[in-house]
Write a structure and sequence with these properties.
alpha/beta, DNA polymerase, domain 1, Rossmann fold, Arc Repressor Mutant, subunit A, 41% helix, 14% strand, globular
Length: 373
């Protein structure tokens, strides 16, 4: 069954949406692997059929493929909570998020489905925030909201919570580290319920997923990916907010920082960002002035899911596969180097990397680097 196009973008059928959910919930399939599988196989249904074979070639003894029953159960449970799955490329998928390299194939949205597509400003900072930091985040969020922007943050304690609370009436988006049925921190369930009438909560994780430490950087890339720019209010030297700032820079977003006392360790990270060229913020006008020129820029949207399998010649031989794997190790390397040194085509190298990733043997790094696990 084929999807239909709406205004040049895709609209998945119910069957396709179920296939997409099954694929992204299968072992070792993340956003980049999902995209590679779609490109390699021509569609989600064909990718599901090819998964066991590709994983075996990568060295896996077995891999779990999300069953139709599991996917239907998650769909039904999400529907009961008012959560909608929006697919990459559909009209309701936030266009700014769609432009990042590792955009989630399916975004689970609760609340106002249009809220994540508004012009958004991210405000993030320390969980252990100072009274001054909380007061400034509140003022900043109110003033930016009054100018017509939505606020996006991570529902964490401290600065995040202050930014959300200050923008309840003008619209705010909470990006969850876990699933919609596992709100973290648990004491912010009531805050989330206050957000939904004018805003939204979004997640890429399974509905009942309990967030772990490594899930928060994944969440942070969505915060910056949804936003025009990211304002860091307070951040220690080793802070998750600095990860958000780094990801914002990699995604081409504006990075703002609020200066703080050199004696306060919670300002060490923000002061460091200012030294590195972040835009200094002492009032909302500093943010608004920098973002105004960005609003009119157009978006380059990725390709739609094809209706028919792609024709390709990307089946590596055993010798080619061995040669490419031998070039890999614990030190990250680039695709270009693997192509040059193996004397194979880029398509062949990508196929071998896809097989290894599905087998859980490959790790992807920033800048297109890969290494063996």
């Amino acid at each position: 069954m084929r999807g239909r196009c709406v205004a040049g973008r895709i609209k998945l059928t119910d069957e396709q949406r179920l296939d997409w959910l099954r694929l992204i919930r299968s072992d070792n399939v993340g956003p980049r692997t999902f995209r590679d599988l779609i490109n390699h196989c021509g569609g989600a249904r064909a990718a599901l059929e090819a998964l066991p074979r590709l994983a075996r070639r990568g060295g896996a003894s077995g891999t779990h493929i999300c069953t139709r029953e599991e996917a239907e159960a998650e769909m039904n449970a999400a529907q009961a909570r008012g959560v909608v799955f929006v697919a990459l490329g559909e009209p309701d998928y936030p266009m700014r998020l769609q432009t990042i390299d590792d955009a989630p194939p399916l975004l689970a949205v609760q609340g106002q489905i249009a809220a994540p597509s508004r012009p958004l400003v991210a405000i993030v900072g320390s969980r252990n925030a100072s009274a001054v930091g909380i007061k400034f985040a509140d003022r900043l969020a109110r003033d930016i909201g009054a100018a017509g922007y939505g606020i996006v943050s991570g529902l964490a304690r401290g600065i995040d919570a202050a930014a959300h609370r200050a923008s309840l009436t003008t619209g705010t988006v909470a990006v969850l580290a876990g699933g919609h049925a596992r709100i973290y921190p648990p004491d912010h369930v009531e805050l989330l319920q206050q957000i939904l009438p004018q805003g939204a909560a979004v997640s890429e994780m399974p509905l009942t997923w309990e967030p772990r430490a490594r899930d928060f950087p994944r969440r942070n890339r969505l915060i910056s990916g949804l936003a025009l720019g990211v304002v860091i209010v307070e951040a220690a030297r080793r802070s998750g907010s600095l990860i958000t700032a780094r990801m914002a820079g990699e995604q081409g977003r504006e990075v703002f920082a609020v200066p703080g006392s050199p004696l306060d360790p919670r300002s060490e990270g923000t002061n460091g960002l200012l030294k590195q060229g972040a835009i200094l913020v002492t009032e909302a006008a500093d943010v608004l002035t920098a973002l105004e020129p960005i609003l009119g820029r157009s978006f380059d949207l990725p390709a739609q899911e094809p209706d028919e399998p792609l024709l390709h010649d990307t089946e590596p031989g055993d010798d080619e596969r061995s040669r490419i794997i031998a070039l890999l190790g614990p030190t990250p390397t680039t695709l270009d180097d693997l192509v040059r040194l193996s004397q194979s085509s880029p398509a062949i190298v990508r196929t071998v990397l896809l097989e290894l990733e599905l087998a859980g043997r490959l790790e992807r790094h920033g800048g297109g680097l890969v290494s063996l696990v």
